[in-house]
Known about the structure:
With 308 residues, the chain is mainly β. The protein has three helices and 14 strands. The protein has a 14-stranded antiparallel beta barrel. Strand 12 and strand 13 form a beta hairpin. The longest helix is centred in the C-terminal third of the chain and has 7 residues.
Amino acid sequence: EPGGRANGMGRAYSAVAEDAYAMWWNPGATAFNRKGQLAFNHIPWLQGSGLNDMFYEYLGWNQYFEDIGNINAHVVLLDAGTQEHTGSSQENLGSFHSFDIAGALGYSYEVIPAKLGVGANFKLIYSYLAPATGFTDSEGKAFSFGFDLGAKYLDVAGLPGLDLAMVIQNMGPKVTFVDQDQADPPPMTVRVGAAYTVMDNPYNKLIVSGEASKMLANDDGFLERFVSGWKYMDETIYGVGAEYTYLQLISLRGGYFLDTAGSITGPSFGAGFNYGFSNRYKLSLDFSMVPGGDLADYNKVFSIGFEY
């Protein structure tokens, strides 16, 4: 998941999202943005565990157009680094590079002004795992597409500052690397989140949030997965977080991430710096650390955002 702010808050962000990372977390959340926004994310993935050439990068853009809505775009790259290429007799055939890249275009709109925003993304995905070996003539590469749908509802039940979110990510056909018989379902994921602004004044702002996500990625058909995909509820991932901002300048964040099935559990924390100038522009710098599971204690997340 991208964004230093989001990761610092335990990845409980779909109901908080209000920047150029928002379309990844919740395409409906961007409907309330009224400024142009840019964002860049860099994560040295699992580094410190002996894997020093894996990186996760994100570049996002959001722009509001009056009477039209918000247009969003992002590119995500997971660089899995260089691998050794061996043949059937373990002979060395050189090396190869593995990576996944996805480009998305999104649209969002305020269906109910200052109350309900909905949005959708369309994405193209390319994955390159490995070259062909003696066991197959097909390279381990795949090209596919997918959709995201999201909604964000503000001031639920008339309570100012209480926001809810619901998102469905990665809806699409099975992904084929070698042949149809070995095709895999995409990681279709349902997210439900809530956020509450405890205080908001010129000096202090405090937000608390929570989120649950469940992957519906069994081998059943697309529609059937919306029913059968809930069978193993112990695979549900949970996150809670909080953010305190002083003078709209410095933010401190903390959270807790719980993924028992993936053995990734623990606290997250981070900080951010916001600087506004010319009464129009704002620069944001964020850093966070999130649990890395069995391979690394923490992943470090660096991100930058710009509003204009």
